[in-house]
Structures are given as C-alpha cells and as structure tokens.
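BUG: 3D viewer hangs when loading the predicted structure for this chain

Environment: internal workstation, default settings.
Expected: structure renders.
Actual: progress bar stalls at 90%.

Input used:
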Amino acid sequence: MSRAIPLRAAAGALAAAALALAALGAHGADRPPLRDRWSAGDLATLASMQWQAAGERSVDRSNAYEARADAAALGRALFNDTRLSRNGQVACASCHAADREFQDGRPLGQGVGTGKRRTMPVMGAANAPFLFWDGRKDSLWSQALGPLEDAAEHGGNRIRFLHVVQARYRDRYQAVFGPLPTLDALPDDASPNGNDAERAAWNALPAASRDGVNRVFANLGKAIAAYERQVSYGESRFDAYARATLAGDPRGQEVLAAQEVRGLRLFIGPGQCVSCHNGPALTDHAFHNTGVPPLDPAAPDRGRAEGVKKLLGDEFNCLGRYSDARPGECGELQFVSADDPGLVGAFRTPSLRNVAARAPYMHAGQLATLGQVVEHYARSPRAAVGRSELAQPGERRPGRQAIRLSASEVQDLVAFLGALTGPVRQPD
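Structure tokens produced before the viewer hung:
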C-alpha cells in the first residue's frame, strides 16, 4: 500500500535513551534517585513505545483527498448515515461508536446480521498497512467499502449508494470529487457482490456505467477515510511514565503503581509481549498464529491465508484503477506473500492502546477478560489450524521461548495493560 511513514521513530527512541542516560548521570547529584531503574536497552524500548514517537500521521498516496477538510466533513456525515444500509438502521457508527472506543463491545460485529469476527477500533487504522483481522484490505478507504456491501454489515449495493449520494449529498460530493454520473437508465439496485438479481443487473450495465458507479463508490470510501484518519489515540499513563523515566524524573515515575511497573517489566521481558506489540501503536502490524481457539472447531477460521487472496483480487486495492497512487508507491502490495504456510490461522496484531476498555478479546471475542488473554499465552495451546508461533514447554523457536508466568505475574501484567488507556482524540 502507498503509505509513507516517518522513519524518525527508531532513531528518536535511541536518541531518547541516550539522553535519558546522560540525564541520569548529569542530575544524579541534585535529584533524588529514580524509583525504577532500567537498562539502556530497556530505555530504548520504552522510548520506542511512546505515543509521541509515532510522529506525523502517515500519508496514503492511494487517497488524494484524505487531507482535505471538506472530504473529512463529508466522510463524517457518511460515517453516521444509516441510509447507507439495506434496512436503513445501520451506519459505520453503529459498530464504531464514538462513545465506545469506536467499536461496539460485542464478541461479533452486529449489523443487518451477525458477522464472523470482532469489530476493530478506528483509532490508528490510518497507519496500518493492512486492515481487518485478515488483512484483506490495504488502505483505510478501501476498508471502508467492505462493510457497505457485506451481507451481515450494511448489506447495501453500489447503485443504491449512488442514489443516496445523489439525493442527500450531491453538492457536497461534487465540491470534493467533481460531477456525479447521471442516473439515467440505471436500475434501483445493482452490485457485483449483491444477491442474484443485483448481480444480474450489474452485469447488464455497460462497462462505462459500471466504472462510473465504482468511482463514486471508491470516493465514498475516500471521504470516510479522510474523517477516520482524524480519530486517534491520546497519551496514556504509560506514556507519562516513559517520558518521566527518560527525563530522569523520579516524581513523574509515580504515575504508575509498583504493580503496574512490575507488569511493564514482564511486558518487555519474560512475557515477550513486546515481540509483537511494539512501537508507538503497540503493534507490529503483522499477522500471527497464536493458537487462539476457533469459535467453530469443525470449521476454523483460516485468517490471513484467505484474506491475502481477497486482497490481491480486490479492484479497490492500491494497484487498482480507483487508487490515486502510482504503482511504485504500492510496495507492500507488490511484495506480499500469498503462499506462506505461516499465514494459515494467522490474524492481525491489534494495538494494545486502550485495550482494557475494549473487552472481549481476540478476533472473534473468544476471551472475555485480559486475564484470560494473558493466561492463554502462558498456556501456549496448539493451533486448531496452521501452526502456533508460541513455543511449547521445552521447545525453542526463533526469537521465542515458552512463556512462564505465575498467577501473581499474570495479575501484574493485566495491571500494566490498564495503564495503556488514554483519551480518544476526534474532531470537534
């Protein structure tokens, strides 16, 4: 996908750690000692995990409208419009509620029907190279299109969306994207992903008409993405602690309780959480099989293995005709692997920011509490499909070893995860 992400974060983390060590040495005589001491390597890790290390928001070259205020205003209206659904009762905001961490708190998404996976939050999605639990979309605007036609989510169709735009948003749409195509001779309902009648109506349209409808459909996603990229995490107590530690400020370290600090040490040490939950967003944006039990043992979800096939065949991906990017700006998509056996049963690493406010957990809400999540990793169960990356007792994997946590350590780690909650920033 065409996303330019600042490269300052890693260098900034190392520089911050070096400054922290210098500060500790320079101020040791006139400051009380730090309550919590960390190694140079740990300081670099803490620096890299700070939200402020994320720097400027990424730029998606496949969406030329994402920075436009008028596009974002239109996108916000579309995000909250229930008319973009088959039954007139479901909007993007139905599952991504602004007062519920831009998710819904359900094990499975609930639109016009019940989905198969958990709703992911909007915050930070603009920086992710691949979207959804299985990574079947490669941009925020393309991701926004999926639920609109999904039978269990909005259940709508492309021609119907064009009618809504024509009736409700004509002037605002044209101010951003230019003239709408004419509705003359278009059916009321048609889509390549709808029911039999809708697909037949779509196939009967001239190619030029289908292209015009597709371009409006793509632009709806681009407007929604322009709004969603303005929704972001704010700093948590962990960020304040990391900043104080790097500055050699003992009083500032008091923002975390002793139990939370013990949990932080486990997070970046024996718990091995930081191996996947790293960087400012606390995610590596990758896909991992960690042996999460499937909802249906008889038909386990294959995750990324199926998602990557959908991604490569998606007409709205970065290399598609509705992308604003040049082919050379779609590096992630050009080099994505479609036949890696490690993709079977693998799911996207979610951000752990604000995680304590977003129960239940895993890709289908299989685990109800953070305690159960930590215990899952400590148990390291075998995968129902594919192969778990977690090391079994007595087994060594590249970069992995079996996780050993006592009951009290599980509690300490859960306590730390609660310190990752901060405000959700959204436009006024």
